[in-house]
From TrEMBL, chains A, B:
Localisation: Cytoplasm
GO terms assigned for molecular function: rRNA (uridine-N3-)-methyltransferase activity
Name of protein: Ribosomal RNA small subunit methyltransferase E
BP term (GO), one: rRNA base methylation
């Protein structure tokens, strides 16, 4: 946690807040080793970033006073990432990292090589929690939009074109002839599509192509989905 | 595993090999669902990439024949990554990903914020195993060099200058004024230094600077070490 995130429910006045979340309390005590009088970096969800002073801290709650929220959160990237639903094990880290890096809209989509069982993983009901971890990691207060699209074809044909708009779109595909680094030299795409382990099948690549999504690879090396997403997103960072 | 890696011990003739490694056997049976007669992509460690035919497959061993090794492994990046020893939990994935992306030389270094206990983690004796997983992921046969540097100052002063040579070096530092994306527009550095969670302390940044290592950040957002390394390495990919 590089910032403590509060929401409306935490505030008892404009300048005073109470934290009862045990994970946050433990972080204050064990990692930050906060003491009464310490000033902490904090933000209000959907609002601004600032600071507040610890006036009480026990294993049950923390009370913060003199809260000021003055700074704007960092800009979001002008980017939608459409990701074939990954293995539950890597889903948490991927949501965290995409959020921390400032992706504006995350779409989890079905694909031929997505294991059907992933859609019934209990982790899918915890996306908000992973997204909050990402905001706390990336020092941000603005949640990205997260969309679930369980049907590939209707999503690509009906929803994707408006997400692309005037921008461009690239699908990362290990077997594509074009290279990602080359394609983005003109401009960064507004939509990035990434497959599951094993990538998309030719039918899916063709359907994406029919709405203007260009396929590009990162070279001859094949990367884990998680590594590939972060390597791709690195191109958006300053 | 996007390639089956064999070494000298597997070969019984130039064109025939036996696999007894249980993890590989399980992969052949459960993931690839290999059958007698199937032709598999394989490589010889430190040598070339090619294929071979399955002529016998049981739960105890696999026998491959008609092995030909004709293709060169992908080029390594002209890059040394010097990484403050991370938490054991992320060490495996970081070694895998850096290997899969083709980093030529990996140095694990001590730093002020590296927890001392990390140096006695049993995972440190399994680096070769993680590196092999990375080669199998990245479709490569050439192991990167891996160096452990338990003393920060002597390494930086005595060993780092010759690793930089005629190239340049950048340390990723969340609080640096310069931006990584800007600094690399002229040329990619030959050496990349990445800190532990919490980054390097000012003394370490100064010592690195004294041998010519420039500090640069990826913007105002703070990333997990693992995400940061992959986001940085993305700049080297085509």
């Amino acid at each position: 946690m590089n910032i403590i995130l509060l929401d409306d429910a935490n505030f008892i006045t404009d300048r005073m807040a109470v934290i009862e979340d045990q994970a946050v309390i433990r972080h204050l005590q064990s990692v930050l080793k906060a003491q009464t009088g310490d000033v902490l970096k904090l933000g209000k969800l959907g609002d601004r970033i600032g600071q507040g002073k610890v006036i009480e801290l026990s294993h049950r709650h923390a009370i913060l006073s003199d809260i000021t929220l003055t700074a704007s959160p960092p800009n979001k990237l002008n980017l939608t990432v459409i990701l074939a639903l990954p293995r539950p094990k890597v889903l948490r880290r991927l949501i965290m990292d995409m959020t921390a890096m400032g992706v504006d809209h995350i779409v989890l989509i079905n694909s031929y090589r997505t294991d059907k069982s992933y859609w019934s993983s209990p982790l899918l009901s915890r996306l908000d929690e992973f997204m909050l971890e990402g905001l706390q990691q990336g020092v941000d207060t603005m949640p990205p939009k997260i969309t679930l699209a369980k049907r590939f074809k209707p999503f690509v044909q009906d929803d994707l074109p408006s997400l692309i708009g005037d921008g461009s779109a690239i699908v990362a595909h290990p077997y594509a002839k074009d290279r990602f680094g080359q394609l983005i030299q003109q401009r960064l795409p507004q939509v990035l599509v990434v497959g599951a382990e094993g990538g998309f099948i030719p039918y899916e690549i063709e359907l994406l192509s029919s709405v203007g999504v260009q396929a590009a690879s990162l070279g001859d090396r094949i990367l884990r989905t998680e590594a590939a997403v972060n390597a791709l997103l690195g191109r958006w960072l300053p």
